[in-house]
From TrEMBL:
This is Replication factor C small subunit. GO terms for molecular function: ATP binding; ATP hydrolysis activity; DNA binding; DNA clamp loader activity. Heteromultimer composed of small subunits (RfcS) and large subunits (RfcL). Belongs to the activator 1 small subunits family. RfcS subfamily. Part of the RFC clamp loader complex which loads the PCNA sliding clamp onto DNA. The lineage of its organism: Archaea, Methanobacteriati, Methanobacteriota, Stenosarchaea group, Halobacteria. ATP binds at residues 56-63.
Length: 329
């Protein structure tokens, strides 16, 4: 965190976007990925940066690491030597052929190479990826590519084999908690312990979501507590999810369905969010192995059907109904 950030502490919540205000500017500031940072730093120190492929879920530091690399290599000149493209918006072959090639061809003042960062590269079509592979070969002398994606399996093998692959895992609860505490202290926010626990739970390893939720909750009142966090993030409390499942397993379908209806209509959760929280919490419910396996099977089936376009509420009620019916056997 920069000194300027600290001096700005106490500004009214919402005046700035905190995920940008507190985005780490150097690799040393990146939280929770010590091994990855160590390897990246060794490339920079040896001036031997290969093409890189960053794979992992959202909000864990992929873009931050790419920008930090450019800052450390080029210093104040990083903006003129770093091209950032979002492949989900510009996913056709023309983007690869035109914008990337034009940047790769252009002159660069006193540096061995320039860096092209392609975010969400798994959104590129196969033709565009093939064109990208050829571009990586053609301009390998003066250009380094950093590709970012959620699923490395969607990147064609010829590109993967040309890159050093870094797999970013969800951030640990400790890393998220430390950063949230630090930001709350700088901004002068009263953050309760249960509010902090709720932020960490709702984030589920996503630092960006944790910081956004903290900023949003800070605008609703003087104290950021558990109630404010769950309300602003439209997240169910773990105990609500647990009670819903336990009621179904005990055969009380009506009570279980009522809890589900509250989550969908009053809390405002989407069906996919309920599925995600169920999946996260299966092993925290204290279920027997048989019950846990049965629940996982039902969750997988409901998730697939919802993904394919089925009605969310119908599928979730069917999930609870199947658990209730199994309890009678």
């Amino acid at each position: 965190m920069s000194e300027a950030d600290a001096e700005d502490g106490g500004a009214a919540p919402g005046r700035e976007v905190w995920i940008e205000k507190y985005r780490p500017e150097t690799l040393d500031d990146v939280s929770g990925h010590e091994d990855i940072v160590s390897r990246l730093r060794s490339y920079i120190e040896r001036n031997d940066l290969p093409h890189l492929l960053f794979a992992g879920p959202a909000g864990v530091g992929k873009t931050t690491c790419a920008v930090a690399i450019a800052r450390e290599i080029y210093g104040d000149d990083w903006r003129t030597n770093f091209l950032e493209l979002n492949a989900s918006d510009q996913r056709g072959i023309d983007v690869v052929r035109d914008r990337i090639k034009n940047f790769a061809r252009s002159s660069f003042g006193g540096y061995d190479y320039r860096v092209i960062f392609l975010d969400e590269a798994d959104s590129l079509t196969d033709d565009a990826q093939s064109a990208l592979r050829r571009t990586m070969e053609q301009f390998s002398d003066n250009t380094r590519f950093i590709l970012s994606c959620n699923y490395s399996s969607k990147i064609i093998d010829p590109i993967q084999s040309r890159c050093a692959v870094f797999r970013f895992s969800p951030l640990s609860d400790e890393a998220v908690e430390e950063q949230v505490r630090k930001i709350a202290g700088i901004e002068g926010i009263e953050l309760t312990d249960d509010g902090l626990d709720a932020l960490v739970y709702a984030a589920n390893g996503d630092m960006r979501r944790a910081i956004n939720s903290l900023q949003a909750a800070a605008t609703t009142g003087e104290v950021v507590d558990e109630e404010a966090v769950y309300q602003i993030t439209a997240t169910a409390r773990p105990e609500e999810i647990e009670a819903m499942v336990e009621d179904a397993l005990e055969g009380d379908f009506s009570k279980s369905r009522a809890t589900l209806d509250t989550l969908l209509t009053e809390t405002g959760m989407a069906g996919g969010d309920v599925i995600d929280q169920l999946h996260r919490s299966v092993w925290d419910f204290g279920l027997t192995d048989r019950e846990a396996v049965r629940l996982m099977e039902r969750i997988g089936e409901a998730d697939y059907r919802i993904t394919e376009g089925a009605n969310e509420q119908v599928q979730l009620e069917a999930l609870l109904a199947s658990l209730a019916l199994d309890s009678e056997e």
